[in-house]
Amino acid sequence: MIRELSDRPSSFVHLRVHSAYSMAEGALKIPDLAQLCVKGLMPAIALTDTRNMFGALEFSKTCVAAGVQPIVGCQISVRREDLQKGQTPNGRLAEPDQLALLVQNEQGYGNLIKLVSSAFLKTDSGETPQVCWTDLANHSDGLIALTSGPSGTLGRLLIEEQKSKAEEKISQLKKIYPGR
Fold first, then answer.
1. 64: enclosing H helix or E strand
2. Average model confidence (pLDDT) across the chain
């Protein structure tokens, strides 16, 4: 009986994995990641490196070769609307919230590339590359949003006991990513 259960594919899929391409956040090399999925009988895995997609192609090719469905994504930083530049003690932008985005289709891949690129192009030098909520709304098709736990907007607002603002953000996310 135990042997039979261990040979079944797992129904669990990691949706927020960081590889060695997430500087100072992940240590897994992509070939090792794919082999861990095979060993754990995981049918799929999502790579959501922080603010970059450097490993997306290697990840996709390596997972497919190993028989694991790759889910490409990225954890992006989202500018906090409640604090603007100059309102923090050091005069810089407030630390951004995090949002994990998963690619649903080809259009989503293109939109995720646009968002990641925009974060670097629109952010001042020395600041954390980030997008605003308008950017998310303009490039949401084909993407699935994960709220990113305590490092996301909802988590931060709930920790700060701002329940009504958290509910507003839930409504905004539902509008930007309907059913996703």
1. helix 56-66
2. 90
